[in-house]
Description:
- The complex is a heterotrimer.
- Helices cover 32% and strands 19% of the residues of chain A.
- By secondary structure, chain A is an alpha/beta fold.
- Chain A folds into five domains: 15-89, Ubiquitin-like (UB roll), CATH 3.10.20; 122-285, 2-Layer Sandwich (Alpha-Beta Plaits); 330-368 and 570-740, Rossmann fold, CATH 3.40.50.740; 389-563, Dimethylsulfoxide Reductase, domain 2, CATH 3.40.228; 780-898, Barwin-like endoglucanases, CATH 2.40.40.
- In chain A, α8 packs parallel to α27 (710-720) and α14 packs across α18.
- Chain A is globular, with a radius of gyration of 29 Å.
- The two termini of chain A are 56 Å apart.
- By secondary structure, chain C is mainly alpha-helical.
- Chain C has two domains: 2-62, no CATH class; 72-414, Orthogonal Bundle (Cytochrome-c3 Hydrogenase, chain B).
- In chain C, strands 1-2-3 form a three-stranded antiparallel beta sheet.
- In chain C, a hairpin with a 7-residue loop joins β7 (358-365) and β8 (373-377).
- Mean pLDDT of chain C is 85; it is low at 1-11.
- Chain B binds chain C through residues 13, 17-18, 21-22, 25-26, 35, 46-51, 69, 71, 74-78, 108-112, 115-116, 118-120, 124, 159, 162-167, 171, 174-175, 177, 183, and chain C through 79, 82-87, 89, 150, 157, 160, 164, 167-172, 175, 177, 185-186, 209, 212-213, 216-218, 317, 319-321, 323-325, 327, 330, 333-334, 337-338.
Amino acid sequence: xxxxxATNPDVEAxxxxxxxxxxxxxxxxxxxxxxxxxxxxKIIPAxxxxxxxxxxxxxxxxxxxxxxxxxxxxxxxxxxxxxxVVRTEGDDLFAARKxxxxxxxxxxxxxxxxxxADGHCELQDMAFQHGVTNLxxxxxxxxxxxxxxxxxxFNMNRCIACAECINVCKDVLMIDALxxxxxxxxxxxxxxxxxxxxxxxxxxCLAVCPVGAITNKYSKYLYKPWQMKKTTTxxxxxxxxxxxxxxxxxxxxxxVTSPLSWKNKWGDRAETSKGHGGICVRGRFGFQYIxxxxxxxxxxxxxxxxxxxxxxxDTMQTVIDRLSDxxxxxxxxxxxxxxxxxxxxxxxxxFQKLMRAGFRTNQLDSSARYGHLNYVHAVRHAVGIGxxxxxxxxxxxxxxxxxxxxxxxxxxxxxxxxxxxxxxxxKAQVIVVDSANTNIAQLASHPLLVKPGTEGLLIxxxxxxxxxxxxxxxPSTGRHPQAFAALKQALDQVSLEQVSARTGIAVEQIREAxxxxxxxxxxxxxxxxxxxxxxxxxxxxxxxxxxxxxxxxLGQPGCGVTTVTEEIxxxxxxxxxxxxxxxxxxxxxxxPIARERFGKAWDVTxxxxxxxxxxxxxxxxxxxxxIKALYVIGENPVATLPASLEAKGTLEKLQLLIVQDxxxxxxxxxxxxxxxxxxxxxKDGTFTNxxxxxxxxxQALDQVxxxxxxxxxxTALANGLGYEWHYESAQDVQDxxxxxxxxxxxxxxxxxxxxxxxxxxxxxxxxxVATRYRIQPTESSSEAARxxxxxxxxxxxxxxxxxxxxxxxxNIEPNSARLRMNPADLQRLGLNEQTTIRMTSPHGSVQxxxxxxxxxxxxxxxxxEHFNEPPVKDLMTVEVDSVTGVPYFKSTGVKIEKVxx
Amino acid sequence: xxxxxxxxxxxxxxxxxxxxxAMKVTFKHMFHRPITFQYPREQRTIPDGHRGALGLLRYxxxxxxCVGCDLCEAACPSRCIKVISHEDPERPLQRYAAEFYIDITxxxxxxxxxxxxxxxxxxxxxxxEYSTHDKRTLLFDKKRLYEIGERHLEDAKKYLYAHxxxxxxxxxxxxxxxxxxxxxxxxxxxxxxxx
Amino acid sequence: MAQFEDxxxxxxxxxxxxxxxxxxxxxxxxxxxxxxxxxxPSTHGVLKVVLELEGERLVKSTPVMxxxxxxxxxxxEEGTYHQxxxxxxxxxxxxxxxxxxxxCRAVEKLMNITVPDRAEYLRTIVAxxxxxxxxxxxxxxxxxxxxxxxxxxxxxRDREILLDWFDELCGARLTTSWYRIGGVERDFTxxxxxxxxxxxxxxxxxxxxxxIFLEKNRIWLARTKxxxxxxxxxxxxxxxxxxxxxxxxxxxxxxKYEPYSAYPxxxxxxxxxxxxxxxxxxxxxVQELYESVKIIRQCLEQIQDGPIMADVPSVTLPPKERxxxxxxxxxxxxxxxxxxxxxxxxxxxxxxxxxxGELGFYIVSTGGGKPYRLKIxxxxxxxxxxxDHMSRGYMIADAVTxxxxxxxxxxxxxx
Lengths: 901, 195, 415
């Protein structure tokens, strides 16, 4: 911290007393005086201060008079000391502050009319507040604008050198992409090394810039702040569920801003544990799809092999006629449905109600099936709670975080900021287990870069080493001696050396990691796509729970096993019962009490137990001819599933395929009927994020074209089919959910839970524990033929296929059709970035370019899952989890060879 | 009351004296020039400060004055202005109004937009005859507003002088807003990258 | 139906044994309900009154208002303080200047701004001109309502002169928006001064002319004397103000009792009536025309050179030429137009003596650039409250005169 006063909430310092404006105030010794004054409710003007980072002291506005000093002192960089007598108001201070404003104004250009910050500018506010008028000798800087960067423009004429952007980037986000540089006689903010900006493009620097020095390229010069309607809503990309402001003008989305801003700069540093209010690149720059030209504006009906625009009434009549026809002829088992987890809770609820109470079928699934259900099933099985066990605050304040199989900076950027804060402010030890040198691995204290596909195996090693090193928590294991004995027995098959050999991590490192995790007072294991989307995901999560159990981290505050989700409402989809195995509230579908309750509430007899089908079963039943009609909302199985699942051929067998989507997706192109749906910006509702918080989604603009919210279409459809639903708004649906699931809508607050595995450990644990520690035989034969592991996954700049429709994100990360490989591998194969390669797997081969990425480990190659051109996903082999029915298709062995000369 | 006064009053009442009294005034007016005029043929003289239809103005060299700062939109009490601005593709950092709409059916002719404009790009004119059969034509767009500004340039200038928005042509030349050269003091030299 | 039949039989039942006991049949009577307006030409806008009549007599009259309701008070909460001035034009749309004046005074009281001297004189002059216009307008329409058409023409002829003068002053004849918070928008030009002086010489003889038509006119006297009488106590308890109150003999004029602007520096008398009938109120208004001329003459004599806007950078706009060249003024301009000035939290009421009565603005501020709540005490609205009381027992034909006597304008009444 150097000379700067500590504003760390964990600072352990004596409590002192000082006098502020005649009032005695208690504070911690050595804390910034500004923070102490702010805590009394007084606001001193300041332009370079923000509570999320340490004070910098460049603006010279936060002046106070300290007794014993002649001149005013800067309160932000002054340390609070015992017995200080401070005065914060007075004409002399006003004059001194006014002088400071004048100093900034004297080198500021006269460009309020063209400046985007105008109306949302701290310099303006300060000048106005201090009544600065008629200043002589204004100087101009004439610095050309730096427009090299992809999303931001730097106009250093307007810069007041407050360094907020640099500090937030370095201190809060730990990216460190900006710096000061003396150029043209002025101190300017430039991207590191005076190069075009190459960072995470989160735009938090833009948010904290108190003037218009950093501008958003996408909304530059379009509108002024006062013209736009600001709607507080929830981002719909990843499971973080960040709050953001969607700023719209009439029918267009102009920009997205975050609660993080220079405007709310006063707070306690400890508050940031719930989030610093920033958003990531996807949230801030990935909004263009909402009002894009590609949006469906009219319902489409297939006529003579082509989709024709048809009015809503005619379309709905066709849908209703054909659906009821199929229903009458072939029974409820002939209808199935898929929905995306980007829909709101209300829509997910209505969808399953339509399926179960309307069509009386239990053949339905959501995109939570692609991975999150593995986690849900595992924790539900072990501790009886079907959602992530920890919230952001736990992550921030953890002393040890085991990030396993998660490129969290790219998949869930804001959760990763929580871990970064844990590292920086709370001095947490972070163990990262991954098969790529991810951003979080680079920041972590203990990066363990394992061979691809062996993340799960390393958990075996950790569990084993905890027992070997006797790091077990006696009270936890002592209560279930039988279970512990069974675990010990199961672990006999595991030897650390074997684990070390297969994962490529030294035994010592495994031991150290296990010790760190076990000894930390608050430790969290966070697993994500590398665990839940890879083979044995279900068992691997259970192993992590074992690890947490024996180290006493289960049921302790601030500890646990948690996950992050890729799509915003995967948790909500599970909670709303959009899975054949669950009813709303995660009641088991075969639970007779729940069946009776929901049957009564919906006034129907629920479909028979065992008649349900998940995603893959639905596909199988379509192939077998049982399912004749499929209702797809927002899902795109044709573009998501690998060719070996024959999604396309399967869907062609259907008599009726209804696709409801904002865009004409690959699946929609095959559909018989396409219904235009509204995006999250055009409807009300709620999302449940990965913490279990239920977050509001608010309508920011009218629906594009004739598109309608999904709940509206579903209600119309249900009424057309004669089910008599009386929902007139999302609120009506919400009321019904509230009645059925009391306490679900605790908006904003995740429900506090204390997981306990007692029931599981004393019941059934012993019989199944052995299965998960069984060493899988290595496929040595295939490994020789296909030496590379192809991994598909998410990029920071994209989320699913949706973000590829956002021009802002495509500008940053277009589809390069290049495979990312380690430079060493490239050299070994004699490749460079100009060559084309052929990649072959048992399912075929594709030709594509390559790109050097040092973060990919040797022996691996990575391709972003967002792009299907070339169709890399079709190379994937599919494995299905026997317990949870989750299809795994994110990694496979491939052979790579050079094409041509 | 004396007898005489009483008699007079009675007489006046009997003879409807007050009518004759009033008729005197009325008949006098027969010899007045009529104060009405025949509108379409005769036009009112309209004072310089009159708040008529709005027009957009250019500088003498033909450049648009408007920098698209949207302050008129903020100032408008009836929310009838919509400005969409962009960066001028040819001259970086120059903002201009790509689209400018005034819904003249909503306009209350208060003149606040003119008062707000930091470059005096807007002015009110003496034009008031724009009734139409098609209400849609009353959404004045940028083209129409510049046309009005050009046709009524003299009126617009007089309006600005009358309402203390601009001093006179010579002085106003100084006010020209060319970002960022606008406030270049004589003592400052033109920076290299701008010339 | 059965009941009705029954009633009839009881009424006409005659005991055959004692035919002499038969009473005369008593016919059932009930009041006639008559809807007057909202499309009636003499209701001064869109006012509907439900008249209960017993024959020709008014038994009860219930004004039904709100046909011209535009949510002006709510609109005030949406915009900055400055932006509300054009909305006040549309309250009493025939006398916009006085509404501007009353509103600006209220905000100045809230912001604690002192208006420069010259501006105060200009404000007083224009306010008095507006009073003249208002009374002319009232006189003309009231005479028209009663049937005297000539007065209407003469009043409107002279009113035209003043409206044109307004046009030259601020650019609009009716929707003036000339007053500003802290001063006025524009100074008088020499030509305006000249025209005003000319008018002051021209006008008093014209008032005499109006009077000739009415004062001795027996129809006028019959329709105004002793009509719509209200006692001083009743007038006070109904909250009446302006000529309507002074007609009942209560000497109450805010210009005298809470002097503001340049009024304390001028000598003028406040005419007070005796009988509280329509005629007295007419008489007061005519006298006020003479008084207004007097006030304007004094103001013109006393007025000195000086600024016309208060110089409070946090509230008043900077001069335009500074905006072009000076960053601070530019910032001031942008802040004031886009966000408005920062009003201190609190609430104030400020009443101003408009020609109709006390026009008051009540502003609740919670800080920030927009009022939290703005309430307008519109004299027309308050006066409508006394309508039932004042019209009881008069003939139906008097209803029109009684509306007129308050000088109501529905734009202000319904807001």
